[in-house]
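ingest -> validate -> predict -> emit
validate: passed (alphabet ok, no gaps, 69 aa)
predict: started
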Amino acid sequence: MSGLVELRRFNKLIEAEIARTFLESHGVQAIVFDSGLNIVEGGGLATAVRLMVLGEDYEEAVRLLEQAP
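emit:
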């Protein structure tokens, strides 16, 4: 098993959670990092939220997000 890699960064926590849920509904496990640092709605001055996946799932995750509605 490979380690976690960053898939994408989001300014809003809700967007990261939607992407995580979408990936998991398609069988790709994902985790959101830095959600506690992104406490300002809109994220203008907050830290970006990182969506992480296993390295072995990275290509599939990219493909899924590109095809997402």
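The beta strands are 4-10, 30-33, 49-54.
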